[in-house]
Amino acid sequence: MLKTNLTHVLSEKEHSELLNNNESVMICCGRMGPMCIPVYDTMEELENEYKQVKFADMEFDSPDAKVIRNLPECRSFAGLPFTIYYKNGKVVEATSSIQSKEQITEILKKHLSNGKNGKSF
Amino acid sequence: MGKMENHFDVIIIGGGPAGLTAGIYLSRAKLSTLILNEGTIGGQMILTHEIANYPGFESISGYELARNIKSQAQKFGCKIRSNIKITSLDFTQEIKKVIINDEEVFTSYAVIIAMGGRSRTIGAPGEDKFKGKGISYCATCDGDFFQDKEIIVVGGGNSALEEAVSLTKYASKVTIVHQFDHFQALGHYVEEAKNNSKISFIMESEIIEFIGTEKLSSVKIQNQRTGEISEMSIDGVFIFIGYVPNTESLEGIVDLNKWKEIIVDKNLMTNVTGVYAAGDCIPKKFRQITTAVSDGTIAALNAAEFINNFKKQNENFVTS
User: Fold this and answer.
1) Is residue B129 situated within a structural domain?
2) Ordered structural domains, chain A, with CATH
3) What are the tens digits of pLDDT across the range B215-261?
4) B108 plus B211 within the same structural domain
5) Which chain B residues are closer than 8 Å to A37 by Cβ?
6) Domain final residue pick, B211, B239, B267
7) Which of A74, B4, B123, B223 is the 20 to 30 Å CA partner of A17?
8) Is the peptide bond before A81 cis (omega within 30 degrees of 0)?
9) Is residue B258 domain-shared with residue B114, that is, in the same domain?
10) Backbone dihedral region of A3: left (phi > 0), alpha (psi from -120 to 50 degrees) or beta?
11) Cβ contacts of A32 on chain B, cutoff 8 Å
12) Do A79 and B145 touch (CB under 8 A)?
């Protein structure tokens, strides 16, 4: 299990439940490495600000993480972490490697804003 | 002067080992202390998977060490704000002013700048586009994506040669591209790379363009001596060309040298009274976590002395 304060997705079933139960989801799939940690850190900070988004992580090396590793959106990816943004269960954006807070908030605002929650909207 | 909102005895800009250590010393000395950090707490320390030369720990990850030091600073009362953007610095008055995110104003009697450095990028067209899609700055993170692939390692220092050797565990072929005709790395790193049959060298050359559609597929390489440009098909490029200090925002605020490092005196004070600097953003030969910790300590103790003297001299002036 990743050492973060985010919701941990541990299986394909949990991944599916998370998407079924939440309209807006961001999952960072990685390891405890230098390119991944800053993304987890930013997500932890944004949890309070973007209350309508469910922030979660998933261990890249877990067999069930194939639900992310095998996404067509990740076909060209060759850098951890793989970060996936879902709206109503569908992938709306995916990024590879480290991302800054500005890059992450830009995607959240573009795709996962509902206009009600979160002071940034 | 009345009591100010968001006033601290000292503001530390940067939350790497230097800044966090200063935070421990100053908050433990009962001085109100705020650390403002633009990225993730830990700085470049978190780029290290395993630290085996930090006293007291036979082996610890950079992430864990950063968390420990952060927690230690917070235990003494140090306030920490991370992932913020510093939008204005004003050190022209006795009370120093720092504005973050264009809206929040913080003031203090003293400031310690510990903004550290970051990995240098090549700056060639396509570098941003293919980050994570063929271009990497971390061999231990992304090496396994290049199993049986052909890759380039850019650089000629210790990191570049050490990582080139480690990447031969995955890659079928590693080409080191270096801008000079010799390496800056220590002899044993060079020897190990030269003795590795999977590694070849292109010297006196630089990558001038990264090419591909969805992912990186080739690079243009220019020979620095002849000017000749060639295109090379490649699956991945790992870049290890050193670090640059994060001091762009300090131009005209404190004196910098030609490498954009902050000039300090033996007490680590800058040319501005009450403003100190520590860690990788000051000139030094050895950039280690231990040396950053040492800088943080020295800057903190001098800043504490400065603040206490300032308060004594301005008893009717200082804010609580």
Assistant:
1) no
2) 7-111 (3.40.30.10)
3) 999 999 999 999 999 999 999 999 999 888 999 999 999 999 999 99
4) no
5) 40, 42, 46, 63
6) B239
7) A74
8) yes
9) yes
10) beta
11) 61, 63
12) yes
Optimal mutation site among B48, B141, B213, interface A, most CBs of chain A within 10 A: B141
Q: What is the ipTM of this complex?
A: 0.77
Interface A–B counts its CB contacts (< 8 A) at: 74
Contact state of B142 with A78 under an 8 Å Cβ cutoff: yes
Final residue before a domain boundary, out of B192, B215, B239: B239
* Regions of chain B with pLDDT less than 70: 1-5, 316-320
Question: What CATH code is carried by the domain that includes residue B57?
Answer: 3.50.50.60
Six token digits for residue B128: 């941003």
Q: Which residues of A touch B (CB under 8 A)?
A: 3, 31-38, 41-42, 45, 75-80, 95-98, 100-101
Radius of gyration (C-alpha) of chain A in whole angstroms: 13
Per the structure, the count of domains in chain B is 2
Q: Are residues B220 and B251 in the same domain?
A: no
**pTM for the whole structure:** 0.78
Residue B50's closest chain A neighbor by CA?
A33
Chain B residues within 8 A of A95 when measuring between CB atoms: 132
Distance of residue B149 Cα from the nearest chain A Cα, in angstroms? 12
Residue ranges making up the domain that contains B114: 7-119+243-313
Tens of pLDDT, residue by residue over B177-188, are: 999 999 999 999
CA of B172 vs chain A CAs: smallest distance (Å)? 16
Say how many CA atoms lie within 13 Å of B204 toward its Cβ.
7
Residue B259, C-beta contacts closer than 8 angstroms, at least 6 positions apart: B245, B283
| In a domain? residue B320 | no
- Which residues on chain B are in Cβ contact (under 8 Å) with A45? 82-83
Minimum-distance CB partner of B142 among A42, A76, A80: A80
Contacts of B203 (CB under 8 A, 6+ apart): B178, B180, B181
